[in-house]
Amino acid sequence: MALALEDVTLKAGRATLLKDVSFAVEPGRLVAVLGPNGAGKSTALSVLAGDLKPQSGRVVIDGRDMATVAKSELARVRAVVGQHAAMSFPLTAYEVVALGAHPFAGPERDDIVEESMAAMDVLHLAGRDYPTLSGGERQRIQIARALVQLRPAAKDGARRYLLMDEPTAHLDLKHKILALECARAFADAGGGVLCILHDLGLAQEFSDEIVLLKAGAVFSDGASGNTLTGETISALFEIPVWRSKSLLATL
Ligand SMILES: Nc1ncnc2c1ncn2[C@@H]1O[C@H](COP(=O)(O)OP(=O)(O)OP(=O)(O)O)[C@@H](O)[C@H]1O
């Protein structure tokens, strides 16, 4: 059981954005995806989410080809926290989080929404107009919404997958840690998490596995403790080995 890319190649016009990319997000695991700007991380996440269709290869969710899974079913088992949390609808923060909760009704829904908002430290923002929130506040609301969306699957014992594109990008240190603790708790409770990160230290600290992407291909993939070496980081980001080694020594 897993959410996996199998030999995925994706092109846009003449550009090849992903070349034979394979990796899997297994239940109970947090996979961090790292790599230079433009490496294909967000593209890979969108393919895994079922939002972009590859020209070759396939996405497999718990043994089924994703192309055969209805969008409505997909919405119950995977949630996406995107890179840009902009939303121009005149909704309150509470209403945005509750968008994830449409299968619930009544007091149960309120409890689940409030619990997820508390987990992301945004309960005090519940009545605020979403468009007036700061970037980091919006990001935390989006994570709370995704957690709400996946709650029914958790209760049914179904597999579920949380896909996050740079969820910590706009967050202060306390909330970066909180967001990754929530993602970690989600994995520890049996969900699978994919998290695109630029921070090597946070990736090392919170993930089980690290996938390194470069130029649309998997550069390296392995257990978090073994993947980030001075030589690998140097080659991945095209920086001197002495620099990557001194950076890694600070992690
Ligand atoms: N529709 C498209 N047509 C052509 N090129 C595209 C298209 N969409 C994305 N790209 C290019 O594909 C590459 C991969 O983009 P992607 O957003 O996946 O990178 P990323 O690894 O997430 O980068 P970042 O760290 O900057 O967020 C980039 O060079 C981007 O410019």
From TrEMBL:
Keywords associated with the record: ATP-binding, Nucleotide-binding, Translocase, Transport
Top-rank taxon = Bacteria
Does Nucleotide-binding show up as a keyword for this record? yes
The GO terms this record gives for MF are: ATP binding; ATP hydrolysis activity
Q: Name one Pfam family in it.
A: ABC_tran
Asked if the record carries the keyword Zinc, the reply is no
Q: Where is the ABC transporter domain?
A: 3-240
Biological role? Part of the ABC transporter complex HmuTUV involved in hemin import. Responsible for energy coupling to the transport system.
Question: Family assignment?
Answer: Belongs to the ABC transporter superfamily.
**Could you tell me which NCBIfam families the record lists for this protein?**
PRK13548.1
Task: Please report the name of this protein according to its UniProt entry.
Answer: ABC transporter related protein
